[in-house]
Structure formats: C-alpha cells, structure tokens
C-alpha cells in the first residue's frame, strides 16, 4: 500500500514537471534576452512547484504521511537540453541556530558537543561569534567576536543562510587558523530559521543529531527516542511525532539545466500553514 501511494505521488510530480518543461521551452523560443529568460523560467517553475506543494501536502496528517513526500527524482526532455531535479527533505529534524540566544543552555550544549567532537580549538569564541551575529547590538562578548566591527558590510540580527554562516566560519579561521571548523557537516546539523520554537520530528532525527543532544541511540526513531529515560532531552528540544496540528518546514531543492546553464531554487515551505517561508535562487556557472 505504501509503495502504491509513493508511486502515485511520484507520477503526480512527473505530470507537473512535464508541464514545466513544455512551458519553459516555449518561453525559450519567445525570449531572446538571457536575463528575461532566467526570470521567466524561475517564475514558471516557482508557480508550478508551489501549486504542487499545496496539493501534495494537503492530506499530510501523520509522520507516516510525511515520509511519503521526501524523495529525489529527475526528468529530461527528448532533445536533452533541459533537465530538472527535485529533492524534498525535512528541515525540522535539525536545530535552528538562530534560537541560540533564546535557548542558551541546551543549544549551547548541543554546539559544544559538536565543536568538541570535531576538535575545534576555541569553541567558546566560535559560539560567541554566532551569538554576536544573531543579536543586533555591536557589543563584543569577547575580543574580536563582533564581526561587524571589522567588516561594516556584515549583517547582524540573525544568520540568514549558509552563505552568511560561511562568512562566520571564514572569520573564525582567519582569527584562529583552526581549519577543523570546515570539517563539520553543518548543513546536516543546523538550519537558519526565525529563532522561534519548533518541534523536532523523532522519526527524522539522525544518529549524529541525537548524539550531540546527549543521547545514545543506534536507530533513531520515535519508538526508540520517546521513552521515560529521555524525558529531559525530549522536553528541552520539543521532540515529538508529527501531527497535522504542528507547523513543519520542508526544503524543496530544485536544480534545472537548460542549454548548458545551471540554475538552483530552494523553497522553504511550512506544510501545516501552507506558507512559503523563504525562496532563494541563483545561477551556477
């Protein structure tokens, strides 16, 4: 039954993608300007993808329902000059780094565990860099921890995305010469949200995530995590099994290739509220 439903979802996506391909190729004939073409492509793909997301997620009510939509697939046209790849992944199986100033005690512990595991030379300095980026003032928690004082173009207030976060990594390396900071698989451990409370879905947590939370579980899932022995950690991190009463963010990564040009769109989407949280797009050369 599960395989049949997953197959139906995949077929549904394929029909949408076929429509996108046809529309984009028509636009390619219509516009001669590369700039206009780029804008038109993204507009078409975004519009169709958001319609698809709304339909695809309207019947998601349980954790098992969620598992059906997390997939990767690709499709090309006959001529071979257009290819599109969709990759849908959960976001609320990681920690929002922007919440660290609101939830200092346990997010501090989470980060310290990561930094110590990867033999980071100065964990406290790195955490202070993060905190001084997220707050809006220019007061240093310690010497050199306010990047904006050294780089007036640097943005405070939150960490907006991985590109912004990478500036913090590079600055830390410049000050400490500690190359280990680049060995940490940050994209698998944190995300860049709005700093508000969010659930962690127990069926999607990884072994590394639960390890850095202080739990030892070989096969993370709701059955193994939601036990009385883990109550303190469960309550601190708001670890639960998803229901349709909960806000839940997903990431839809769309890569498409048209006439040797590569494009990427990332959509962060809240399944519960049917709301787009953010959209990023860029050309890859």
Overview of the molecule:
The protein has 285 residues and is of the alpha/beta class. The protein folds into three domains: 2-91 and 249-284, no CATH class; 95-197, no CATH class; 199-247, no CATH class. Helix content is 43%, strand content 18%. It has ten helices and nine strands. It has helices at 2-30, 34-57, 63-69, 104-117, 123-134, 147-150, 162-176, 207-212, 222-225, 231-237; strands spanning 72-76, 82-90, 95-96, 190-191, 200-201, 239-240, 249-258, 261-270, 275-284. The strands form three sheets. Strands 1-2-7-8-9 form a five-stranded antiparallel β-sheet, covered by helices on one side. Helix 1 packs antiparallel against helix 2. The radius of gyration is 21 Å and the shape is globular. The relative contact order is 0.15. The model has no long low-confidence stretch (mean pLDDT 87).
Descriptive key words:
285 residues, two-stranded parallel ribbon, 10 helices, single chain, transmembrane, 43% helix, 3 domains, globular, alpha/beta
